[in-house]
Amino acid sequence: MFEDHIQHMILVGQALEAAGIPHVLVGSMSSNVHGFARSTKDMDLVVQTDHAGLDRLFAAVSVAFDIDPQASFETITGTFRHILIAKDEKFKVEIFQLSSDAHDQERFRRRLTVDYPALKARVSILTAEDVIVTKLRWARAKDLEDIRDVIAVQGESLDWNYIHHWVTIHGTRARLDEIRASIPKID
Amino acid sequence: MILWLILNIQLKFSASTLAAALTTDRWPEGRLNLEMNNEFQPLADALYRERVLRARRMPPEERMLDGIRLYDQAVGRMRLGVKLQNPNAEPNEIERLLKLRIRKLWKMSDYGCYKPA
């Protein structure tokens, strides 16, 4: 089954590349890259494309995925979410359209593109700073744990000026400070 | 001894988190309280530090793939749970019930984050 999930990810990654759709991997897969590995039930992607681009993407992956006909709104930035459910019904891919939200735009611009041999594709991921800023806005229990882990694992390499800029705008600075204060001394 | 300490930390951590969630307005509903009983804090910090150092030694790609492995293992345990609850069910029925359980998990995880377009 692990191999099936990887095949699903390879298919989506290659379809995005073939369709020339700019994208970034967000959600727990992105935070796993910068923090601790935790169980990941899906692949979350932000894409910069129009409806025609989405249709091309959906057609390219339809051999392995069913498209959920009911799109939904994500409640933080108000963007659209489309769900692709693997035909074995044990894995899903969530596709979010890039919104006009200022931080959504900025994190997309700053994304890192990395060569991941296991996925046979170049994958764009969020920076560690943008994982922290994004998860502070969502602030579910699992997000707060992820933030703590990303900060601990990344150590001194984080750009705190950048993080403080956005958390001030979002009003999440107190939450961030409380999480930082809870991290034991690592080095 | 170490297992006993870890178990105690987890129990006390869960209890203090639950108590904080019920009694404080510092964190809105559903938020994590990261405090712990002082007695176990040094050991918890040492365990956490070890986990961080181990994560730093792992290639980032491997950490991402580990997330998928952990999910795969969780689905395997869910299948065992379904089998235990339905000892006479055929394999096809076990898979059907497993898929229902996975859908429920997805729905719980999405709760409050999305609305129909």
How would you sum up this structure, described in words?
The complex is a heterodimer of chains A (187) and B (117). Chain A is an alpha+beta fold and 187 residues long. Chain A contains eight helices and eight strands. Chain A folds into two domains: 2-126, 2-Layer Sandwich (Beta Polymerase, domain 2); 132-181, no CATH class. Chain A has helices at 2-19, 27-34, 51-61, 102-109, 128-138, 141-154, 160-170, 173-181; strands at residues 23-26, 42-47, 65-67, 72-74, 80-86, 92-97, 112-116, 121-125. In chain A, strands 1, 2, 3, 4, 5 and 6 form a six-stranded mixed β-sheet that branches. A two-stranded antiparallel sheet of chain A has the order 7-8. The mean pLDDT of chain A is 92. By secondary structure, chain B is mostly helical. Chain B has four helices and one strand; from the N terminus they run ααααβ. Chains A and B meet through helix 1, helix 2, strand 4 and helix 6 of A and helix 2, helix 3, helix 4 and strand 1 of B.
Q: Provide the domain count of chain A.
A: 2
Which architecture of the largest domain in chain A per CATH?
A: 2-Layer Sandwich
Low-confidence segments of chain A: none
**N-to-C order of helices and strands of chain B:** HHHHE
Total helices of chain B: the number is 4
The CA-CA distance between the termini of chain B, in Å, is 54 Å
- Percent of residues in helices of chain B: over 70%
